[in-house]
Design goal:
Length: 362
């Protein structure tokens, strides 16, 4: 063995000892730089092979390259072992007991104010013996208008008041019974519910409805609860008593209701229902100011209602609803309006902004 190959073997042994002695990946990197870096003896020796005598050049170059490759493989193996050991140690040191409670505890979620109000209203009527039913949000002209006694000239049929669905066959025929649309009220379920069962029937229908409106008190999508009661010997007094029970359950035991004449296509007679203001006394606040909620009238409008029009019953007379034998009442309210009144929300759009500052209050 020549003097050069002996020197190469000695450099390899020294490098292996440093590699084996490295206890961390950082120490191993220091060993690599010391023995295989640009300024290390073995690489410098390789760079000087070209200056050797031709008889030694091949032998020394081969020995140096083999030593370099062997050391690179040793560093790679040692590096893998050290990395795994360090990872295991870090996982042990940084271990988390997942059975411990979070610190701080995560905030507990809650139902949205609209959902809270809907369920509160449902509870009132379920306690009165009503069933809760739901229906499709995509309706037809028949169920949304025709079966509910809407005249062909009623303005709510216009595309400016109703979202008709484009089926790809041109402009929708707003008078065709099977033309699809997004329901403008939950009232179509009156007809569907009566088709599904004979009288007597007591149901409420919560759900989303859609109208092309958007301002402080209207949104294109909102929620309603429709009520329907059909039986024998039902009168307007039964309607008033039912709505009085509802108003007192939602707004307080001291509330009163009043009925004002109005017009709805599917009820006759029709009435608007007001509840006595729960923010003032006689239209005046405790500090002597005109009440901003009831505008000084001492009454707040909350819903529309009336006795079911005989024409609506005739539309389902094949299902046992003979207007000469049964009668009843219907009512409908906006869930958002009830929530706004009860909780003092000034703008309907706030209920859809998902502002945590508002939602956390309820």
């Amino acid at each position: 063995m020549s003097e050069m190959t002996e020197r190469i073997a000695a450099l390899e042994r020294a490098a292996r000892e440093a590699i084996d002695a490295a206890a961390t990946t950082l120490e191993l990197e220091d060993a690599r730089v010391s023995h295989l870096g640009r300024r290390a003896p073995l690489p410098n020796l390789l760079r000087g092979v070209a200056e050797l005598d031709p008889a030694q050049r091949a032998q020394v170059g081969r020995a140096a390259n083999e030593a370099r490759r062997a050391l690179e493989e040793a560093i790679e193996r040692r590096g893998g072992d050290l990395a795994q050991a360090e990872l295991r140690a870090r996982l042990i040191a940084e271990g988390v007991d997942v059975t411990l409670d979070a610190d701080p505890l995560p905030a507990v979620g809650r139902l949205h104010l609209i959902t809270q109000t809907r369920r509160e209203i449902e509870d009132v009527f379920v306690a009165l013996g009503y069933d809760v039913v739901e229906g499709p949000e995509v309706e037809t002209v028949h169920y949304n208008f025709d079966a509910l006694n809407h005249a062909p000239t009623h303005p709510s049929r216009l595309p400016t008041d109703t979202f008709y669905i484009d089926t790809g066959s041109g402009s929708p025929d707003i008078f065709a019974p099977d033309t699809p649309l997004l329901r403008v009220h939950t009232s179509p379920m009156q007809v569907r519910a009566m088709e599904a069962q004979p009288p007597p029937i007591y149901v409420i229908v919560p759900g989303r409805v859609f109208r092309p409106d958007s301002d402080a008190t209207h949104t294109p999508q909102f929620h309603q609860i429709e009520g329907l009661a059909i039986d024998t010997d039902i009168t307007l007094a039964d309607l008033k008593g039912t709505l009085l029970t509802f108003a007192r359950a939602i707004f307080g035991e001291q509330r009163e209701v009043r009925l004002r004449p109005h017009f709805f296509p599917f009820t006759e007679p029709s009435v608007e229902v007001d509840v006595s203001c729960f923010h003032c006394t006689g239209g005046v606040t405790p500090d002597g100011q005109r009440c901003p909620l009831c505008k000084g009238t001492a009454w707040i409008e909350i819903l529309g209602s009336g006795m079911v029009d005989p024409n609506v019953l005739l539309a389902v007379s094949d299902h046992g609803y003979d207007p000469e034998r049964v009668q009843g009442f219907a009512f409908g309210m906006g869930i958002e309006r009830i929530a706004m009144l009860k909780h003092g929300v000034p703008d309907l759009r706030l209920l859809y902004d998902n502002d945590i500052r508002l939602l956390e209050q309820f």
